[in-house]
Every structure is written in C-alpha cells, then in structure tokens.
UniProtKB/TrEMBL annotation:
Keywords: Signal, Transport. The keyword Hydrolase does not apply. This is ABC transporter substrate-binding protein. It comes from Streptomyces finlayi. The lineage of its organism: Bacteria, Bacillati, Actinomycetota, Actinomycetes, Kitasatosporales. InterPro entries: Bact_iron-sidero_bind (IPR051313). It comes from the Bacteria.
Length: 284
C-alpha cells in the first residue's frame, strides 16, 4: 500500500498573515490564555508563555483547565527564552494581540526571531473584537489543527446566555468591573473595552461606567472615588498582578464575583462565566 502523503497545513491569522507548515502542527507553544483555550478544544500545548505582568511562574488564574505541572513555562516579557521555545521542538507559536500586529507578552525582537523559525498565528482579542468573534477565531484555529470543543459546549453556552438574559429586570444592580492597584488606587474597567463585559451588556446586564479620564481600557482612581459609584456587585480581577480586594473600601454589603479579564476564549469557559453571574443575580 502506498503511504499517504503529508497534508500541508495553513491558517490565516488576525493580521491577515498566512502561517504554513508541511504537516499539521502538533507541538504548540502558546500565550497562556491561548493555551488554556486550546486545552478546552482538546489541544494541549507543549508550553506556554506569560505577559509582562507575570513572573517566573505561570499565573494559575489565567490557565483555565491547563495542567500546569505537565506544560512547560517559557517565561514572560524580557524573561521569555526564545531558545527554550525552539529547543522544545515547537512547530507552531500561537500568540495574541490587543489590536494591531504586535505580539502580546514578549519583546518585539523575540517575537521576530521566533517567527523566522516557527509558523506563527496571532489572534486579536482586543476591544475591536466581540466575545463571539474571539471565540470563533480560536474555534477556526483548533479546527484547522484537527480538534474542536464537543457540540454540547455550544448548546450549554446558548443556554447560559438565555438564562442570564431572563434574570435581568429594572431592579438588577449594576456591576462594577475592577482591578485593585494598591491601598490607594483601583483600576476601573471600561465596559466597552472588554469583549466579555460587552457581551454582558448585550445580554442586558447593567455595568457601571468609570470616570471618563484615564486610559482606553481602565480609569485609575482613588478608592473613595470608586466607592462614590455605590456598587453593589463587583467583578474583581483575580489575576496574580492584581492586588487583593478589600470590599470594605467600596462600602458595605458589597458582593464580589471573581473576574478573569483574560478568560479562555472557549464556549466552556464562557459558559462558566455567564453561569457564575446568573447564579449571583438569581440569589441577590
């Protein structure tokens, strides 16, 4: 019997750049959020790298269902070792960007060096993309690599969204999404700047807007100014770079929900996100 010829692989990423390989890649190195997303699609990366906020160890808040004891960690930012990525036999690099073409989480020279040696896919997860668009991009990549989430994951997501939408009423308290900075300041998220928060808004969940001054994604203010917004429900950043939250800084009877601004872009993870908020609203 004549052996089957290898099937060339290709994928066009969010930059419009075509990544190609003579065979379907199987040894994937990915940004931690991308790696957690691929894990939900049945594709375990051989290694991951972090963001400039991360240290010598991966942030478990970002890792989703990845078994961190089974996946190599290549570092983050300036500490990311490109030689280790290459030595691991990586045949595909999956990175993310927040708009534009810049690879998030590694130095530009490192990204350029790796892209010269390894097929690279960069997926845009920034505010220009809806949550479903981000999810669809990863779904398409996983499908090109021969795997996908089980069909029931999409059904569970649709059910979770419908359930959450049914709980919204004129008396539903508005959520405030934030990331504690330190004892004096807090970063308040702009709902329009985050795909997951925009998805909540589209389902009718009210969110509090921070003051207009500040950056595109966050308004950094003192705790007293944040408390003046009188939040009842708070989505608090649980990533390692966020300071611990003392709810008393915002007032009394504050209910806190964990929030991962770098949630895996999978139906499984998004279902858990919507279900968590629905559970709080149901019992509020």
């Amino acid at each position: 019997m004549t052996p089957t010829a290898p099937t060339p692989w290709q994928f066009t990423d969010s930059r419009g750049q075509l990544a190609t390989a003579p065979n379907r890649p199987t040894r994937i190195a990915a940004y931690i959020q991308a790696g957690a997303t691929l894990e939900d699609h049945g594709l375990r990366p051989i290694g991951i790298f972090g963001s400039y906020h991360d240290g010598p160890d991966p942030d478990p808040a970002k890792s989703g269902r990845l078994p961190l004891d089974e996946v190599a960690y290549f570092g983050a930012g300036q500490a990311l070792d490109p030689d280790a990525v290459l030595a691991a036999g990586t045949d595909l690099l999956v990175a993310v960007s927040y708009g534009g073409s810049a690879v998030y989480g590694m130095e530009p020279d490192t990204a350029k060096h790796l892209e010269q040696h390894i097929p690279t896919v960069v997926l845009d997860i920034g505010q220009g993309r809806s949550l479903s668009e981000v999810r669809d991009c990863f779904h398409a990549l996983a499908a090109s690599l021969g795997s996908t989430e089980p069909p029931e994951a999409a059904h569970a997501l649709a059910d979770a969204q419908a359930k959450l939408k049914s709980l919204i009423s004129p008396t539903t308290p508005a959520l405030l999404a934030l990331s504690p900075a330190d004892d004096t300041e807090v970063h308040l998220a702009r709902p329009h700047a985050w795909p997951d928060l925009r998805a909540l808004t589209a389902l009718g969940v009210p969110l509090l807007d921070p003051p207009p001054e500040g950056g595109a994604n966050w308004a950094t203010v003192g705790w007293e100014r944040a408390a003046a917004l009188a939040p009842q429900l708070v989505l608090a950043d649980v990533r390692a770079n966020a300071a611990p939250l003392d709810p008393a800084r915002l007032g009394t009877d504050i209910q806190v929900l964990p929030w991962n601004p770098e949630l895996p872009a999978s139906a499984t993870a998004h279902t858990a996100f919507f279900d968590g908020i629905a559970e709080v609203l149901r019992t509020d």
